Amino acid sequence: MSNKTYILLAEDEQMLAEILCDTLGDRGFDVQLAYDGEQALQAVRAKRFDVIVTDVMMPRMDGFEFTETIRQSGSNTPILMVTAKTSPVDKRKGFIIGTDDYMTKPVDEEEMVLRVGALLRRAKIASEKKLTVGSTSLHYDSFTVVCGDTTNEHPQKEFLLLFKLLSYPGKIFTRRQLMDEIWGMNSTSIDTTVNVHINRLRKKFGEYPEFKILAIKGIGYKAVINQ
Questions:
Q1: What distance in Å separates the CA atoms of residue 9 and residue 11, rounded to the nearest whole number?
Q2: Angle at which helices 109-128 and 14-26 pack, to 10 degrees?
Q3: Quick check: 37 and 13 in contact, CB under 8 A?
Q4: CA–CA distances in Å: residue 182 to residues 34, 87, 216
């Protein structure tokens, strides 16, 4: 079985596409290029990819339509959308149709590599339905946290918040981001709902040696793994 990681890069700017392809290739990824949405769609139908990196403004089929089409086909391949469009409306549209992450041009090559790596880790966690941090493990299917000989089941929203934060240690999430992902973008709940659930988590796991949840004043929260 191959241990290679296959990435589809859909980008119509040839020079940028080649630069990004070289950057990813230098990190050991096997990259296939597509220069428009139709070509990218044909590639997805012919081969399995571990991550898709797609531009928005492409000929024949744009990134939004491409993403929506493959999501409707049942594919859950992680998608990183790269675009010059910076408005919140465009970002929101991308997430609604199934984009997993979003970055704007001009592309920082190192940031792109980090985001691809984060998507790969997230996909691995999702497929295994289990996240392990030191001697603590989170079991997605049962919303349980196991630490040593102790197993505790947690309310769904609390568990999903904890799972999200620990899946991306060190990454700061705004309250709005957490609301959109855990409660849904159409939820009528307010941002303070996140505060309440986070405070409960911090009380429950405050004595755990493996990690801690930090409040970032005026922004949101992050999980820190204790070394």
A1: 6
A2: 60
A3: no
A4: 33, 22, 19
